[in-house]
Write a structure and sequence with these properties.
Two copies of one chain form a homodimer. In chain A, helix 5 (98-111) links the parallel strand 3 and strand 4 (116-119). Chain A is built from eleven helices and ten strands. Helices cover 43% and strands 17% of the residues of chain A. The two termini of chain A are 24 Å apart. Chains A and B meet through helix 3, helix 4, strand 3, helix 5 and helix 6 of A and helix 3, helix 4, strand 3, helix 5 and helix 6 of B.
Amino acid sequence: MNRKELVSQIRQKKSYLCVGLDTEFNKIPKHLRSDPDAIFQFNKKIIDSTKDLCVAYKINTAFYESQGIPGWEALEETVNYIPSTHFKIADAKRGDIGNTSSQYAKAFFETLQFNAVTVAPYMGEDSVKPFLEYKDKWTIVLGLTSNPGAKDFEQLTTGDEKLYEKVIRTCSTWGNPDNLMFVVGANRLEQFEKIRSIIPDHFFLVPGVGAQGGSLKDISQNAMNVECGLLVNASRAIIFASQNEDFGEAARAVASEYQKEMQNYLL
Amino acid sequence: MNRKELVSQIRQKKSYLCVGLDTEFNKIPKHLRSDPDAIFQFNKKIIDSTKDLCVAYKINTAFYESQGIPGWEALEETVNYIPSTHFKIADAKRGDIGNTSSQYAKAFFETLQFNAVTVAPYMGEDSVKPFLEYKDKWTIVLGLTSNPGAKDFEQLTTGDEKLYEKVIRTCSTWGNPDNLMFVVGANRLEQFEKIRSIIPDHFFLVPGVGAQGGSLKDISQNAMNVECGLLVNASRAIIFASQNEDFGEAARAVASEYQKEMQNYLL
């Protein structure tokens, strides 16, 4: 999916919502857990219930890897089930030396049919570039994350800026707004304006709304650009809105609230 | 495996060699590729041929993930096949917000029976700590890596030191030499002494010997401590020493050269 198609989906649905399929086995409704294909069945219901309200799904690989081979099977089934109209993100935070990052790029862009993968920047250029070599695929580099640990290294000062600013500025020269996005946590409002000035045209993938406390209004009013430029992710707040048999309807209700609010900011 | 047991294995075998099972499908000998279980059969032969010469095996997850489900099956078979006398490293370079890193820790320490996993430090404390909560399991944090991209961020100056020094100094306070190691590239000789002064007692996992040009002699003479404190990894130089039917013998010959040289430095 290229940028034009993504922006078109956003305009059409009046939504820049990404639903995070952080499907932790122990949190899915009890009536599903005895199903040998429980994780996929859960995801299928969530996708069916939310697909007209969101433009992207984000699969965090950790929740699947923890289940071993059945987890990878569920991940594969899920990515194949997501409609091709939707932007499919592997939230994998990979990164290794060049020849090894190429294998990760192959894993997510060829073996699995994701549109995008999140990448950790610590190891530098040759660890990021192999992901950027795929046409119409996207690399989403960690910029300023939403977790408490962001203060430990990301927010250190180096030269006349913070490390996350340096990371964003440097990585932005390795790709362009058509193949590169950055993760910026929703609870980093005070930094949004500065980051937007460094990368006016890039999309941000914004986690941290909902369970982690970020405000959709603040993000939207401070970081949207002419093409929207935002994919705002909510995971637990949507997928675990109910732990009962009505979890699909409950997820839809929460996703619908997000979409309705987004519709206002997109005007 | 605890530190005492690891050091005992090193003394017994007079080796601190780690064999990296970077089993790229297209590089395994042609006669094996038609076997539906080719990757595991290759690894099995490498393990059988080298196990008395090394103390650790390192499985880089990228080469398995790129093969999809069959790759994960081969990874699982391989880790189960490695003898319990050997230190089993998942070179996965994972890291995410706290509740998600917990899932990665579960994946590698419970679902799969690894002794250690490599972790990327960018996201800070809550991304690293879940790995440190397992008794007799090890977290190996990226310090100064061997690849060209290490110059982009790892070697930036922050305060009065380099970022990688800050990362090593800070992370070392989250664990101890019994549950924490650091990745230090073999080609970073000029920095070895400084890093050893920051963490005199920790083990270093040292990639970059062989294909990447680091010198075993230089590393050993500059960074060994009283308990050895080094696991030196070689991957391609050993496992792809021959692309013919004699690949097991060829791998053994190279591993044996490393072990013989290590024996001298351990005296």
